[in-house]
Design goal:
The complex is a heterotrimer, with two copies of chain A and one copy of chain B.
Chain A: H1 19-32, H2 39-44, H3 52-65, E1 71-76, E2 79-84, H4 89-93, H5 105-117, H6 122-129, H7 135-143, E3 147-152, E4 160-164, H8 166-171, H9 183-190
Antiparallel strand pairs in A: 1-2, 3-4
Helix pairs in contact in A: 1-3, 5-7
Chain B: E1 14-16, E2 19-21, H1 24-28, H2 35-41, H3 45-55, H4 65-79, H5 84-105, H6 121-142, H7 170-187, H8 197-213, E3 215-217, H9 228-243, E4 247-251, E5 258-262
Antiparallel strand pairs in B: 1-2, 3-5, 4-5
Helix pairs in contact in B: 3-6, 4-5, 8-9
The chains are: A alpha+beta, B mainly alpha.
Chain lengths: 211, 266, 211
């Protein structure tokens, strides 16, 4: 709608502001602000004409006015701001349904195998998972920068060997692969009493290794 | 003329329709040091011509071509230094005006078939179109503009609706493994060997090094500051790599240099 | 408030939304949206439970509810959005001292030609303005998101054809190009019957044109 536009007159000092117009201005400022506004900032709206106590009272007033709305005025550490009430979230989420995407089981299992068994080929992954691995799965993980090919196994077909990257560790908040949940503990959960045909390896303290 | 300036010591710079022109030159005849202002004032020759016609009541026909040309030529001279393109446009306009004037002076052969063609028509059409757009531009500039005359509201939202990549927690990895293990156990007795992760990590590290150099000396794989454990793990990683046919370890003669070579194709 | 509304066979009859709660949700969505929201988008808030007519009625309702505020609900080219009223601007400007600069005449004339004559090439603009168009002028307008290249004219050099964007309309508070100020009929430069150029000049009224 293009209402005829009249350039706004500069604020008239001759025309004293009523509490209602002060509230209107406070609301407009708080609704357009990129960040919470402290009282010190809100005072500037009125060339410091009103003191903090007066503005606080009006802000409390506005907070009450908005009680029934889906949006509320709150005071946070750095000032006052409007924000949506939690009850609105389920509706608003419908506008952006891809908000918390998840990786498929195939992606997660492939990632786990590469993390724990690296370096592995696609064939290795398929053997462990018992199903074939779609190219898109490896592409997803490569595009995310979590896995990379570190060489090729010298067997027919020269399959690429995949390993996890430093970025994978960074983004999972790990200092090294040793900080991954130990396999041993999980294995005992499932394969209790399974025989181990290898000697225990020496205890290893997380090294500087993390490319 | 709106007003006559009381500058008596300045002779008229131009005469338009026989009237001495005392005020126009303030806009039109620009001393060289005020060129910047002049260029700001007029968008180009069309704009200047329009100004002459509209503001100073000039008939397009009565524009004194000789003087206008002289004026234009002096702008051209001023602009030549750093506004060559603009100078060219003024020059072109001068040429066009002279052409129109000369054609107006020539007797028009009266032909029955062709309607009389006014040589000014095209210039007039352009001037009017430009003037129309100039007006439209002023009106557009007066429309309320987001950010200037009003602000768009966008409240703070807890979760910004930007495209997010899936989050993975290490517990997700654990669950993925448990899933694999459970299936492996159900399907057949798939053997998953006990493995120390650090060996796996070092295997990747050695392969990365070999990818960069293809060929390294055995001792270079051991950092001089390595702890005993790291040396052991690196050694185990080398053995594992050799076993998996990923590297070749060779020694040309007894006690000679041991070479580690990638046997991957790249 | 608004007339009571009975949802048409809601899938969850347990807790039907009242018109007031629908309005609350619409408000929350419009106040938090990054872009104007068309009705098609607003329908998603309610899993398409309500039709466009019903939502339009409620939006008009909301518009009225906000009449006395410093903020208004408007409909622009790409949908509905909340914005501050121009009367608020002098106050809000005190919070952000650096005012948005006005565009130069070259920029505004170029924009007008693109808006009214689109699609046009740079050559078309130069033909109308009688001067060359600096690349920076087109860049300024493109960066603002007001113009874009919509194709190429099939002549030697394949010059780009420029048109205005939906954002241009949005940011100028317009629903469509038809709402642009109408082009004025310009006063003729050659008076009718002005064949004899020896005659005195006709009376000329100075135009409103100002530099």
């Amino acid at each position: 709608m293009s209402a005829p536009y009249h350039p706004p007159d500069s604020p008239e000092p001759s025309n004293p502001l009523t509490p209602d117009s002060i509230k209107r201005i406070l609301e407009a400022a708080l609704l357009t602000a990129q960040e919470p506004l402290p009282i010190s900032e809100l005072k500037k709206l009125f060339d410091h004409e009103f003191n903090a106590a007066m503005l606080s009272t009006l802000l409390e007033d506005i907070r009450r006015d908005w009680n029934d709305k889906g949006v509320e005025l709150v005071k946070v550490a750095s000032g006052w701001r409007f924000q949506t009430k939690p009850a609105m979230q389920p509706y608003l989420d419908r506008l952006t349904p891809q908000r918390t995407p998840r990786y498929s089981r195939a992606v997660m299992e492939t990632l786990a195998i590469i993390a724990y068994r690296q370096p592995v080929t696609r064939g290795d992954i398929e053997e462990i998972r018992g199903v074939s691995v779609a190219t898109s799965v490896l592409k997803t993980l490569t595009a995310r920068g979590w896995i990379e090919s570190v060489g090729h196994r010298n067997v027919p077909g020269k399959p690429a060997l995949f390993a996890t990257t430093a970025r994978f560790l960074d983004e999972l908040n790990l200092c090294s692969l040793e900080e991954l949940p130990p396999l041993e503990e999980m294995k005992s959960l499932i394969e209790a009493g399974d025989q181990n045909h290898e000697l225990p390896l020496p205890e290893f303290t997380p090294s500087t290794e993390s490319n | 003329m709106d007003s006559v300036l009381d500058i008596v010591d300045t002779p008229p710079i131009a005469r338009i329709c026989g009237e001495p022109l005392l005020e126009i030159p303030q806009d039109l005849y620009i001393p060289p040091d005020a060129l910047e202002v002049f260029l700001d004032t007029f968008q180009g020759p069309l704009d200047l011509l329009l100004y002459l016609i509209r503001k100073h009541n000039l008939n397009i026909l009565d524009i004194p071509m000789a003087e206008l040309t002289q004026q234009y030529m002096s702008y051209v001279a001023m602009m030549r230094a750093d506004q060559l393109e603009l100078a060219a446009e003024y020059l072109l306009m001068t040429a066009l005006l002279i052409e129109i004037k000369s054609r107006m002076l020539l007797p028009t052969p009266k032909t029955e078939s062709e309607p009389e063609h006014d040589p000014r028509a095209e210039l007039v059409r352009r001037l009017l179109e430009y003037e129309q757009m100039k007006k439209a531009a002023l009106q557009l500039a007066d429309l309320p503009q987001a950010g200037r005359d009003f602000n768009i509201i966008q409240l703070w939202l807890d979760q910004q609706a930007t495209e997010q990549l899936p989050n993975v927690h290490i517990d997700d990895l654990r669950h993925a493994w448990i899933g694999i293990l459970t299936r492996a156990k159900v399907n057949r007795h798939h053997q998953i060997k006990r493995e120390n992760l650090s060996v796996r990590a070092f295997m990747s590290k050695i392969l990365r090094e070999l990818r960069a150099h293809h060929h390294v000396e055995f001792q270079d794989l051991f950092s001089p500051t390595a702890t005993v454990t790291e040396v052991v793990v690196t050694f185990l990683a080398l053995l594992e790599l050799a076993k998996e046919l990923l590297i070749e370890i060779s020694q040309s003669h007894a006690f000679g240099m041991i070479h580690v070579r990638s046997i991957s194709p790249t």
